[in-house]
Amino acid sequence: MTADLSQLVKAYDVRGVVPDQWDESLAELFGAAFAQVTGATAIVTGHDMRPSSPGLSRAFARGAASRGVDVTEIGLCSTDQLYYASGALNLAGAMFTASHNPAQYNGIKLCRPGAAPVGQDTGLAEIRALVEEWSDSGAPEPVATPGSITRRDTLEDYAAHLRSLVDLTSIRPLKVVVDAGNGMGGHTVPTVFAGLPIDLVPMYFELDGTFPNHEANPLDPANLVDLQKRVREESADIGLAFDGDADRCFVVDASGDPVSPSAITALVASRELARNGGTGTVIHNLITSWSVPEVVRENGGTPVRTRVGHSFVKQQMAETGAIFGGEHSAHYYFRDFWNADTGMLAALHVLAALGGQDAPLSELVAQYDRYAGSGEINSTVDDQADRLTAIKAAYGGLDDVTLDELDGLTVSAADWWFNVRPSNTEPLLRLNAEARDVATMTKIRDEVLAIIRS
C-alpha cells in the first residue's frame, strides 16, 4: 500500500508523528531516495535526543548505504552542528529532529553539500515521489557494493569553528543562565562555552525528548518564564534559551525582559559589518523591525528585504553574497557558516558585545530597539483571501500609504507599518505591526484585527 506522505513532507522538511505517520521502514526508504536524488557518494547524518531519533537515523543510514553511499554518523547533535559537518566535510546531510514540536513528533532536515537546503523545489518533491513509489512496489534491489556506515565525533570541531568567528577571550566575566529545555543545547553549550570567562548556570541540560519541564519552544512566552525567574534569582547578566534542536536562540536581559530578535539581528549585523570592514549585504525578512535596515545602513551595509522563511533567506544570502541574515523567529544566518542558521553563533556575538563593555544588556540593546511592535498575532479565519482583500480595500485608497504583496500584504505609512500573511498549513492569518510609539501601534493593530476577525 502506498504511503500517504501529503501530511508528512512539508515545504522544507519531513515532519510527523511517530509511529502513526512514519516509522523506521519509511525512514529507510527516505535514505535510499535521498541518495538517489542527490547523487551523493557520501553523506553525514545526525539526530537529536527524541526517543525515536536514533532508530530513525540508523534506518535512514541503512537505506542510503543500500544505494552504495558511505554514511558518516555524528550521532547526537544540534541542527547547526549537522550543518557544520555538512559544510566542513562538504557532504550532503540529514538531521533527525522535530525542532520545537512535542515529543511524539520527529522529522528530517535535509541539505546538500555545504549545508545547502533541500526543499520542495530543490529535491524534496522528487524524494517524496520515490518514497511513495517504493512503499507501493518495494524498494529497489541493493547495489552490488553497499556503502559503509562509520561514526565520527564533530562536537569539538564545531565548537572550535564557532569560537574562531567571535573573539571572547578578553570579555569581562559574565554570569549566563542557559535554558536548554532538555534539548540539544544541553549537549552543545558546555563544549562551546568551555574555557570562556563565563559563569554558566545550566537549566534543563538533561537530554530528554519527552520535555518534562516545558516545551522546547522559546517563541512561546510561557516557555521563558523559568529562565526569566532564574536570571533574576541569580543576578545574572543575561539569559539564553534554545529550542529543541538548538538552532534558535532567544535572549533575556538581567531583569528577565525578553530582547526582541530584531534587536539581536541589528546588533549582530553591526558586528558582522565591522568584521568585514564596514561593508556588506545583510538580509532581513519583511517583518523584522524598521530598526534592522536602519542599523545596517548606519554601519555601512546594504539591507535586503526578503520573504519569511529560511529557504528565501538562504537563497538571498547565496545570490547576494550577504555576510549575515536574521529573522523575527530568532533564526540567524552567517556567510562564514555556509549561509546556514546557527543560534549559537548569534549567542556568542551577543556575549562578546555585552562582555566588551560595562553597561547592562538592556542599555546595550536599547540603541537597536527603537520602535513599538505587536509581535505576531494569529487569527483563525474561514477565508484568508477574502480577509486580505478586505484589508487591501480599507487601506489601499489612503494618502501616503504604500502596499506591497511580497509575502502576504504589507501596508506602510510614515509612522507605522503592518504585514498580514496567510499560514501555509493552517486556516490562520498572521499579523505583525510596528509604529513609532505604542499608542499608534495599538491603534493600527486593533483596526486590522477588527477587519481580520469581522
Automatic annotation (TrEMBL):
Enzyme class: isomerase
Pfam families named among the record's database cross-references: PGM_PMM_I, PGM_PMM_II, PGM_PMM_III, PGM_PMM_IV
Sorted UniProt keywords: Isomerase, Magnesium, Metal-binding, Phosphoprotein
Superkingdom: Bacteria
Transmembrane regions: none
Biological processes, Gene Ontology terms: carbohydrate metabolic process
Domain Alpha-D-phosphohexomutase C-terminal: 376-449
Domain called Alpha-D-phosphohexomutase alpha/beta/alpha: residue spans: 7-134, 156-256, 263-371
InterPro entries linked: A-D-PHexomutase_a/b/a-I, A-D-PHexomutase_a/b/a-I/II/III, A-D-PHexomutase_a/b/a-II, A-D-PHexomutase_a/b/a-III, A-D-PHexomutase_C, A-D-PHexomutase_C_sf, Alpha-D-phosphohexomutase_SF
Entry keyword annotation includes Acetylation: no
Cofactor: Mg(2+)
EC number assigned by the record: 5.4.2.2, 5.4.2.8
Single GO term (MF): phosphoglucomutase activity
CDD domains: PMM_PGM
Family indicated by similarity: Belongs to the phosphohexose mutase family.
Name listed for the protein in its UniProt record: Phosphomannomutase/phosphoglucomutase
